[in-house]
Design brief:
The protein contains 27 helices and 34 strands. It is an alpha/beta fold.
Length: 799
Amino acid sequence: MSKTLCHDRVAHVFFAPLPLEHWLDMKNRARTAERRENADNRDRRLSVLLWAALFSLICGAIEFGQPLEDLIQAGRDVVRSRDSKIDAVVVGIDDKTANELGGLDYPRHIDAQALDKLFAMGARRVFFDKAYADPTTPSQDAAFSAALKRHAGRVFLGVINTKDAATDQKVEIGPRPEFTKEAQLTSLNGKITPFGLSVRIPFNGTLNGQRVRSMSTVIAGIDVEGWDHYRPDWAIQARSIPTYSLVDIVRNRVPDNRIANRDVVIGPTAAAFNDFHHIASQGWLPGVYFQVIGAETLRRGLPDYWGWLPAYLVGLGLAIAHLYTKRMRVVWLTSGAAIVVFGVLPIFLDQRLITVDVVPAVLLFSIIAYRATTLRRVLRSSQTNIVSGLPNLAALRYAGTTRHETLIALKMRNYAEIAASFDRLVERAVIDEICRRVVLSGDDDEIFHSEDTLLWFSELPMGEDLAHHLEGLKAILSTALPIDGREIDISIAFGVDADYERPMTSRIGSAMLCAEEAARANDIWKFYDPERLHEAAWQLSLLSRLDHAVDNGEVWVAFQPKLDVKANRIVGAEALVRWSHPERGLIGPDDFISVAEKHNRIEKLTGFVLDQAVAAAAQINAEGSDFAISANLSVQLLQKPDLLNFVDRILKKHNFPASKLILEITETGKLDRNGPGIAMMRSLVEHGIKVSIDDYGTGNATLDYLKILPSHEVKIDKQFVADIDTNNDDLILVGSTIRMVHSLGRKVVAEGVETPAILQALARLGCDMVQGYLIGKPMKLPELTEQIFSQDRRAANGN
């Protein structure tokens, strides 16, 4: 950050001695001004302290920072990372076991054999990370029961406490009664923290109302009667726990000395079991390791949780000292102490199984430290605005001829009214509050004030991130400013200059001019960009050019085929508008459709596309095919009361059945659930026209609108389809969506199908139709016709 260059002008004048009374009066006035300035500084510091203390206090009370706390604890775990030393092993039901035993659902007598083998090898106890609640065949259950009896008292089966998803009632899942006669029970419960960053384990569970000790407490040899959860020491690396495949145990491939005198935990480690959970310091782990790590933790002692309040009180003391000191030495000492207390000390506490939360304290001290630095910089500035005490435009001009950062100007549109309605102190408080919110939003804390405009630099370059940032800042500043017991509303607009090479004076003028233009146009911001001026001229003439383009044939309709997955044949297509401009070439639909919608000119374009699409589909059907056509419909047109007649005229013109027309609705978030748009959709459906929800899964095209919109079809956006052959998460999401949509009696279309592997995956999931480059790119009507009838000819020839 560049420093403000301040120049003092010294003048030598001759003067007569002042009368004593006059001199004392001047001195008193100076002292009064100094006291007032000091009072203002104290008020600002107190405001910062109270705001930061309250904000961080609330964050601690509602555990707002728990995900960040888990990440910080994970970082400390990485620092303390160590191998497991517990005398226990894991026997995994893994992919190797599935391959050799014919699947993961192998016969239950295999578990009986495993028990006999393990105890023959010298195992101390065997714990199953399974509930054994389901029956198999009588002979298999009898074999397992007999094995339990042979090793009575040394085998432990799992108990799971969960909730019914439909009724939200507690459910207890335990072993079958014939197994509990010979085996002991342990609880397998765990609690996943927000965002799946860590797992905590309860000391006990229940079965039939009776307390069941957790597996970790049984392995550790302790008995805690409470129902609390504890955090295992995740510094213990799961990869260091000896692990063997179940099939290797059964087939005598593991030496006896690897099992002798150890506890054995048998549990699923194959991905197909879906028993993997995320630990921030170790990644995705099978749940079978959690109880083992928990047992090793408990053998060292009972974990103690101190919460966030102790660190918060320490942080509050350090923050007060940091905020109110006038010595830089104390500033550095408090900053260093904060690093030690919140960064280093918790590592030693973790080693002693004491967990302390530091996020509220770190948040408090960080806010205070940042704001204290801002206040000191403002106080050191000698070129200030007389009202606000901020550096003025002279300071900004002297900051340097060039500066490679974005200059932002904030114009206060009702500043004159505020200045006229209140005294200078209130006027200054308004500026201070705006600056406080700007700085807290993450922008530069060196702010310059000129009358009704504030200016500062931002490291964000011109682009989408800066636009989003200004929108967020506008939202922050839209709330009323609490000033001296009053609530004052402020109206603002932004101007932005990112032309780094121009002189500072020119950049200041450009930013302030853009802010003025934004205020007049009632916009949030305006950017100064010479290249954008040329593009703006094009945009202004785009509408008239578009009308002309529709009339002279520059605008045309492309068709992207849709494949029926089960029938393996093209049964429809989506009509897509294209514009081939003689000078600018192919213009993307996003560049002109949004402009047409904004200026209520979308109806003519939609009518052209619908007419061309229905005519093409009617021609294809007339030649013997059974073909449906889809076309996009703007939400804006759903508000028009004559839309149904508009569409019906096109259908009758080409003698095309309404049931073969599909209108795809995008941007469903703009629909009012009780407004005329949804009522119009119902009218279209009642007339026989089909409605499709486009881009499902993105924006507002989600469950809520799936519920209220009268649709026949749902289109899954390509971003969820593109990686389903390699990304298991996407595969699960798409599969669950298809099942849900089918259960509602609607069909599913997947967009963006580009490889045979993706098509095969969608076929396995039961997707109805697909479209994408694998099936065909958007094409002209003759190419589409040839593709359809060539498939019909192949089908007729038996190919």
